[in-house]
């Protein structure tokens, strides 16, 4: 009996070892991780603020780390963005890449946005809701409008928006200004999936880029106008931002965006970018 049992145990152990090695070889590498427990590293992050018209009610915009979170307060009224770009590129070539973060996904006269751009623009935006760009050259944008239970996806190719998709519904995700939802976003050339507190929505895509810069964005949709001057900024709080893939050196450069919609009545791009807290 012993001579029969031992070979069996050896075969099982060998198969287990081979399987474990195979899993270890295929497991994705954590390429970037930030918990914002210290001051923002200006080698890793670029802060930018922009809008597409002269703002007569300009409010103070701020980017800071506070209480172990990245806080982005967007004061660009009618209508603009405050964003932090991660200077280390996210690469998902020939695979499905994963981005994770915690953030408030509620919507009250502003909303939370995550974007990927193949070029290192200071920030990127979109056409709808009187915003009027600037667009990524090639990229994608995810917007959370949690009060309406919506996730929106825009894709861009050669400087033009190529698709707009959305999923809306009562998915049981609790949102609020001080509630951070856990988001997992997976990206491949053909599909983007966004999972918020366990609820997933997927969008078919056809992406023509495989590496991009990740933007954490607060979009202000006229908070002063719609709150009768009570709320000067649209605020988002971020924590535990990660992505997998190859580790690529940060690119500390900002390319001037030039992809703007046609026929804009007031096509002024007002932009401020900060490297090392210097305009």
Plain-language structure description:
This protein has about 280 residues and is mostly beta strands. It has 2 helices and 16 strands. It has helices spanning about 1-25, 225; strands at about 30-35, 45-50, 60-65, 70-75, 80-90, 95-105, 110-115, 140-145, 150-155, 160-170, 180-185, 190-195, 200-205, 210-220, 235-245, 270-275. The strands form 2 sheets. Strands 1, 3, 4, 6, 11, 12, 13 and 15 form an 8-stranded antiparallel β-sheet that branches. Strands 10-9-8-7-14-5-2-16 form an 8-stranded antiparallel β-sheet, with no helix packed on it. The longest helix is centred in the first third of the chain and has 25 residues, at about 1-25. The chain is globular. Mean pLDDT is about 85; it is low at about 1-25, about 265-270 and about 275-279.
Rg for CA atoms: 21 Å
Based on secondary structure, the structural category is: mainly beta
Q: How much helicity do the residues have? A: 10-25%
**How many beta-strand segments?**
16
Mean pLDDT over the full residue set: 83
Shape: globular
Q: Whole-Å distance between the termini? A: 79 Å
Provide the succession of SSEs.
Answer: HEEEEEEEEEEEEEEHEE
Tally of helical runs: 2
Largest beta sheet, briefly?
8 strands, antiparallel
Strand content: 35-45%
Which segments are poorly predicted (pLDDT under 50) over 5 or more consecutive residues?
A: 1-25, 264-268, 275-279
């Amino acid at each position: 009996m012993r001579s029969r049992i031992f070979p069996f145990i050896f075969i099982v152990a060998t198969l287990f070892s081979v399987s474990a090695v195979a899993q270890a070889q295929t497991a994705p590498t954590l390429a970037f991780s930030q918990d914002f427990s210290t001051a923002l590293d200006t080698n890793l992050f670029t802060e930018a603020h922009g809008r597409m018209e002269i703002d007569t009610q300009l409010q103070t915009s701020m980017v800071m780390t506070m209480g172990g979170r990245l806080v982005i307060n967007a004061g660009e009224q009618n209508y603009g963005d405050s964003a932090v770009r991660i200077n280390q590129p996210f690469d998902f070539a020939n695979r499905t890449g994963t981005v994770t973060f915690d953030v408030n996904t509620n919507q009250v006269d502003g909303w939370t946005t995550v974007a990927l751009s193949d070029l290192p623009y200071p920030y990127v935006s979109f056409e709808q809701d009187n915003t009027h760009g600037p667009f990524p050259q090639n990229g994608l944008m995810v917007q959370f409008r949690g009060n309406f239970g919506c996730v929106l996806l825009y894709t861009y190719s050669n400087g033009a928006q190529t698709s707009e998709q959305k999923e809306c519904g009562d998915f049981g995700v609790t949102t609020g200004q001080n509630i951070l939802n856990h988001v997992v976003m997976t990206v491949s050339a053909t599909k983007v999936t966004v999972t918020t507190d366990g609820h997933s929505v997927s969008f078919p895509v056809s992406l023509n880029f495989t590496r991009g810069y990740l933007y954490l964005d607060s979009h202000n949709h006229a908070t002063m106008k719609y709150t009768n001057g009570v709320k000067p900024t649209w605020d988002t709080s971020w924590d535990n931002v990660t992505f997998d893939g190859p580790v690529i050196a940060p690119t500390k450069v900002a390319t001037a965006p030039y992809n703007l919609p046609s026929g804009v009545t007031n096509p002024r791009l007002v932009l401020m970018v900060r490297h090392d807290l210097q305009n």
